[in-house]
Specification:
About 45% of the residues are buried. The strands form 3 sheets. Strands 7-6-10-11-12-13 form a 6-stranded parallel β-sheet. Strands 2-1-3-4-5 form a 5-stranded parallel β-sheet. Strands 8-9 form a two-stranded antiparallel sheet. It is built from 11 helices and 13 strands. The protein has 2 domains: about 5-95 and about 285-315, 3-Layer(aba) Sandwich (Rossmann fold), CATH 3.40.50.720; about 95-275, NAD(P)-binding Rossmann-like Domain (Rossmann fold, 3-Layer(aba) Sandwich), CATH 3.40.50. The protein has about 325 residues and is α/β, with parallel strands linked by helices.
């Protein structure tokens, strides 16, 4: 029987699928450290949710053939080590995209309609209803940085609201002017100067770390907004704090942070009109089930001919050098 290490609790449907197909599961959270090491010689797959997989950790498992990520972001996995040792790194390519896209729109709607402020007025001083300053998303322009699994869904939702949608992704060469009817921005700085909203949907890499820094945020029109439901560190958090306080940015929405769990010194906690969620954009009932089942299916596929190409992690990088 093939032994799979499951690093954290996940939806039962995925685990049941593995057991139904004859896999033996080692539940890491149920074992003491010394008990866990006793299984290392037998483990052929790792089912990981958010845990960190270092080269040293994986090197203790000589039979390891697959790391199945419960999601799509692999910045906590030493992908270079895995590839060098013929270990497949699989993702749930369709698992969380709808949920993260909806979460992104939630932040955008929150910026536009200020529901917390409205609720407070109803509860405290109804006469202040004339102080509400809301606007229609359909009258605004959004730049989507990263046009992949999630970015494409965000674009479709923004279009449904009537927004003008611009997209930026270096996989589109200079000769390509539009995709799915959306204009492609080849110069990020020029694109930022045109928009009311920026939302990022690229992986965190050395090249994308702080790709949106203070200099780039200053190129956005005064009164614009930034949204990050991708990975912490893509947008400079200190710059967001400073520019919301100065009024250059009207607000922001963040689901992810440079250090997680968020620390008390994180600049976003001092930012003005900044709405935060605890890295839960993918935490819908439907998404958690999809990711668990798709991760399990990737493991099954690995031992029955191979993981489909769409589910093998491929590092898509938006390079600041391209802008």
């Amino acid at each position: 029987m093939t032994t799979i290490l499951v690093t954290e609790p996940v939806h039962d449907d995925g685990l049941n699928l593995l057991e139904k197909n004859g896999f033996t599961l080692v539940r890491k959270w149920e074992l003491a450290a010394e008990e866990l090491t006793e299984h290392f010689q037998d483990i052929e797959g790792i089912f990981v949710r958010t845990g960190t997989l270092t080269a040293d950790f994986m090197a203790q498992m000589p039979k390891l053939k697959i790391v199945a990520k419960h999601g799509v972001g692999c910045d906590t996995i030493d992908v270079a080590y895995a590839r060098a040792h013929n270990i497949t790194v699989a993702i749930t390519s369709d698992g969380n995209a709808p949920s993260v896209a909806e979460h992104t729109l939630m932040f955008m709607l929150n910026c536009a309609k200020t529901p917390v402020h409205m609720d407070n007025i109803v509860r405290t001083d109804y006469s202040q209803r004339t102080s509400i300053k809301a606007f229609d998303l359909g009258a605004r322009t959004v730049l989507i940085l990263g046009y992949g699994r999630i970015g494409t869904k965000v674009a479709a939702l923004c279009k449904a609201f009537g927004m003008r949608v611009l997209i930026a992704d270096e996989k589109f060469g200079d000769a390509i002017k539009e995709q799915d009817g959306f204009p492609i921005i080849h110069d990020l700085n020029e694109g930022l100067a045109q928009v009311d909203f920026l939302t990022v949907h690229v992986p965190l890499t050395d090249k994308t770390h702080h790709i949106i820094d203070k200099k780039r945020l200053m190129k956005m029109p005064k009164g614009s907004y930034v949204i990050n439901c991708a990975r912490g560190g893509i947008i400079d958090e200190e710059a967001v704090r400073d520019l919301t306080k100065s009024g250059h940015l009207a607000g922001a929405g963040f689901d992810v942070y440079s250090v997680e769990p968020i620390v008390k010194t994180n600049p976003l906690l001092e930012a003005e009109h900044c709405w935060l969620s605890p890295h839960t954009a993918a935490f819908t009932a439907e998404s958690l089930k999809r990711m668990s089942v798709q991760s399990a299916q990737n493991i099954i596929d690995q031992f029955n001919g191979g993981v489909p190409a769409r589910n093998i992690y491929a590092l898509e990088v938006y390079s600041p050098d391209h802008a």
